[in-house]
Amino acid sequence: MPKLRWPPYSPDFNPIENVWGVLKDRFDDRRSQIRGTDAMIITVQEEWDSIMEEGILAFVNTILQRIEAVIAANRGHTRW
Fold first, then answer.
1. How far is CA 11 from CA 31, 40, 48, in A?
2. Per-residue pLDDT for 4 more than 70?
3. Rounded CA separation 18/56 (Å)
4. Are residues 15 and 60 in contact, defined by beta-carbon separation less than 8 angstroms?
5. What is the arithmetic mean of pLDDT over 52-70?
6. Residue 66: exposure state from Cβ atoms within 10 A (0-12, 13-18, ≥19)
7. Are residues 44 and 22 in contact, defined by beta-carbon separation less than 8 angstroms?
8. Alpha-carbon distances, residue 58 vs 1, 2, 62, 74 (angstroms)
9. What is the pLDDT of residues 17-47, one digit of tens each?
């Protein structure tokens, strides 16, 4: 089986980076309502739980496009 020559921790290959972005955006939308550390923890947990498995899988299912984009960009920056 061929192996990629890029490190596996590359953000372009890691769909969790996109999930973190979604979580951050959702958290930021509610930031003005959060008062205190406990409320912040609850908010993050609620938003994490609300990201449906299908939403996460949508990012995972783009791995081939991610690989092609990195190759096309000659290991440079991609939209991912």
1. 26, 26, 20
2. no
3. 9
4. yes
5. 85
6. buried
7. no
8. 25, 25, 7, 25
9. 888 999 999 999 999 999 999 999 999 999 9
Residue 70: how many CB atoms within 10 A of its CB?
Answer: 19
Neighbour count for residue 80 (Cβ, 10 Å)? 20
Question: CB within 8 A of 10, min separation 6: which ones?
Answer: 70
How many residues belong to the chain?
80
| pTM for this predicted structure | 0.69
Distance (Å, rounded) from C-alpha 54 to C-alpha 78? 23
- Tokens of residue 31, six digits: 């930031």
For residue 18, give the amino acid letter: N
> Six-digit token pair at 3?
């192996």
DSSP H helix total and E strand total for the chain? 4, 0
CB atoms within 10 A of CB 29: 11
Tokens at 54, concatenated: 């299908």
